[in-house]
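ok so for the tutorial part 2 we go from a plain amino acid sequence to predicted structure tokens. step 1 is just haveing the sequence, like this:
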Amino acid sequence: MSEPSLRRAPPSLATTGIGSLPHTELEAGLRAALSLDIPFLPQLPVGRPSELMLPQALEGLPGLSWDGTGRCEVDLEVWSAGRADFEARLEAALDSGDCEAFEPSPEACQAWRPFLGQVARHALPFAKAQLAGSFTARTLVRTREGVPCLDVPGLDAGIHRLLLARCLGMVRALRRTGTTPLFFLDEPGLYAFTRGDPRHALALQEARLLVEALRHEGAWVGVHCCAQTDWAFLLDAGLDVLALDVGLSLDAVLEESGPLARFLAAGGRLSLGLLPTTASAYDVDERVDAVEVSLEAALPPGHALADGSLPVLLTPACGLALQAVADAEHLLARLQEARARLERMLTSRARL
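step 2 — the prediction. this is what the tokens look like for a chain of 352 residues:
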């Protein structure tokens, strides 16, 4: 099946989530995740450290251990002892195309199988999932001696191949439900990216190949980075979607006028993290208006919210696991309010 026949573009102004929720009851978490325009796979790490970003993504890596905060390390002796069997299973899955064994287990993501069931049952046209990205995993996870896994030959490649297999397994499982997957690679570790470091440049090139593999499977592929990074380099990385915290990073992205113009001309779109996850009080209308003014003032020629030539997605600024359940659900409801505000604004301008 060819790529164009698989990929449908998500609607502009559609709301979705970044990933984590504070719910401890699976059914309540699923309800919250299904309440948005594009339902998202809820990661539910409260009381379950195995569902935190890095332990979840690296499940099954020999020698991996983690603490209650999700900080991971790898015992190189255990890694070495289990490496041959691990690599053989990985390569067999990647060679055959059957990566089902690398989908998240119930321990790593209790919502995964129930979420797939809901996507299929409701014949959802789009569904979003996410996983820690390769750069973040390899730079933030360290050996017991404190060495970043990116600097350990073999382990470095093993982590990248594991994430490739897991991402492919998840995207293919979503495709089997009939939906078009929107798949985000969570890359907060890109704050440490240095263009002049050859290891970093190679890691980002490998990440670009991962993006291409997922696009070939019919997914819309994005990177979420809730930190400052080399936005020009990332905008040229072949993404479909760049997801960012607008309060932290929108101005910096808009300043990269050349890379941003190329990104948008190639069909890329922005996923705007409109609503902050830390501020207790803010005016939704004021935030929407400020973002709209920033976009209209700095977008490359030929792209504007007002005429529909800039399709965007709308999300919270980041995951919501650190919120109270009531606060997280309130924020998701306010996100729908923000979308309605933008729709009214754009409709009003179209009539002028």
